[in-house]
Amino acid sequence: MSEVRLAPPIGLLAELTHRCPLGCPYCSNPLELESRATELDTATWGRVFAEAAKLGVLQVHLSGGEPASRRDLAEIVAHCAKAGLYSNLITSGIGLTEPSVGLLADAGLDHVQLSIQDSGAASADRIAGYRGAYAKKRQVAQWVTAIGMPLTINAVIHRANVRRATEMVELAIELGARRVEIAHTQYYGWGLANRAALMPTREEADAAWAAVESMRARLEGVIVIDHVAPDYHARTPKPCMGGWGRKTLNVSPSGKVLPCHAAETIPGLEFWNVTDHSLAEIWRDSPAFNAFRGTDWMAEPCRSCERRDIDFGGCRCQALALVGDARATDPACYLSPRHDLIAAIAEADSAPVVAPDYRYRAPARALQKV
Amino acid sequence: MSAADDIATTARPRLPRGVRLSKDEARGGFVLLAPERIVRADPVAAAILQRCDGDRSLVEIIDDLCATYKGERSRIETDVRNLLADLSAKKMVEL
């Protein structure tokens, strides 16, 4: 037992399934998607939520893949409610029906976060790799708001829609959302594989950022804007996950508990599964959670940095992906000796006149280039 | 006039659906749970928010707090108005 008391987690991301009808090229799911056969059953999720609440978790984010791909979604929501957890459904909307939205509400769902891919149908459907997705999402938004359920619209920003970031805020208002998340793409999983097709130029990213920020004052009390910065154009890194093993845990479809959704890209980490251990044991003792907890693992320039308890050295997965060392300073930081690398990548990837095609997400056995 | 001063005494504040005040068993105290937000509610905020049921008016909430906590009315009213204006801007209270 550690002498310093370990603070309990506040949030749990439940990746109920990796199945998803959409193929969004920025998806942060791993390239090796877990199959349906390995997914946890309803009762196991119920136990996980009960353990999570006991451990101190306050909010559960039901995600995937597309959580509505699970036929037991309403039962899963009911388990969250029974445990007293605040439940947030993170959905593409595809697979939901008007009656199923009602059933989720009756089961105790607290909030719906619906993704949109662009402000117009043609571009949105191309990005999603799914014809009719945009129209369906508009319908889902209406079902959700009609029963008084709070709605967040989430839009991921990249080259194909970066000029319409403000239009997506307007669309969120039109759809009756109380909150909108404008998130510049973070490059993990499929997003990393598609980086050269997704990266906007610095000028485009800066302009989109400023335009959305300029809406804030006018929209106070109308809609809450949450804005996620473009990493590759940053000066200081994001405080990834609020610090490794510090605030949240992420349970994969098969029950592996991860400090973040990309953690499996780091070689040598040992992840424990909810079928073998309690959530409390995993939070406290699992090697993966303890690998980058606190600041002892840090090297310079992080170790002596005055921001080490603010951004925790940035993202471990990004340090690994870009400079080959999960213990290195995230190169998004201007103090990283490799900071020049991230600017060079951003410039190179945003450069081509004709953007390369997307590599749509697909199960491992059917990898395709579309 | 600030947004806090603008709240009518007849307003009947309530927590909208998707926002709830919850006891934090693991850490003690109360938290306000909202979409992608967890706000710690100190004892003063918790006492105010417990009374925001959409039924009681602003003036009734202040009366009740004065009677319960025997505090100075002007100070309690300022606390209530400031909290409600702040949370209303964040869409966590409806006036």
Structural notes for this entry:
The complex is a heterodimer of chains A (370) and B (95). Chain A has 370 residues and is an alpha/beta fold. Chain A has helices at residues 42-55, 73-82, 98-107, 121-128, 133-146, 165-174, 189-193, 195-198, 202-213, 216-219, 279-285, 287-291, 308-311, 316-323, 339-350; strands spanning 11-15, 59-63, 86-91, 111-116, 151-157, 179-184, 224-228, 248-251, 257-258. Chain A has a nine-stranded mixed sheet with strand order 7-6-5-4-3-2-1-8-9, with helices on one face. In chain A, β8 (248-251) and β9 (257-258) form a beta hairpin. In chain A, α1 (42-55) packs parallel to α2 (73-82) and α2 (73-82) packs parallel to α3 (98-107). Chain A is globular. The model of chain A is unreliable at 366-370 (pLDDT under 50). Chain B has 95 residues and is α+β, with helices and mostly antiparallel strands. Chain B has one domain: Arc Repressor Mutant, subunit A, CATH 1.10.10. Helices cover 42% and strands 15% of the residues of chain B. The two termini of chain B are 17 Å apart. The model of chain B has no long low-confidence stretch (mean pLDDT 94). Chain A binds chain B through residues 8, 10-11, 54-56, 58-59, 84, 86, 88, 110-111, 113, 148-150, 152, 178-179, 181, 220-221, 223-224, 226, and chain B through 16-20, 22, 24-27, 31, 33, 35-36, 38, 88-91.
- Radius of gyration over C-alpha positions of chain A, nearest whole angstrom: 20 Å
Numbering strands along the chain, what is their spatial order in the largest sheet of chain A? 7-6-5-4-3-2-1-8-9
Count of helices of chain B? 4
Helix content of chain A: 25-40%
CATH-assigned homologous superfamily of chain B: Coenzyme PQQ synthesis protein D (PqqD)
For the sheet with most strands of chain A, the description reads: 9 strands, mixed
CATH architectural type of chain B: Orthogonal Bundle
User: What's the total helix number of chain A?
Assistant: 15
Runs of chain A in which pLDDT lies below 50 for 5 or more consecutive residues are 366-370
Cα(first) to Cα(last) distance of chain B is: 17 Å
Give the proportion of residues in helices of chain B.
Answer: 40-55%
Q: Do you know the CATH topology of chain B?
A: Arc Repressor Mutant, subunit A
Q: Mean pLDDT across all residues of chain B, rounded?
A: 94
Give the radius of gyration of chain B. Answer: 13 Å
What number is the mean pLDDT of chain A? 94
* Beginning-to-end CA distance, first to last residue of chain A: 51 Å
User: How many runs of DSSP E, i.e. beta strands of chain B?
Assistant: 3
- DSSP, total strands of chain A: 9
Shape of chain A: globular
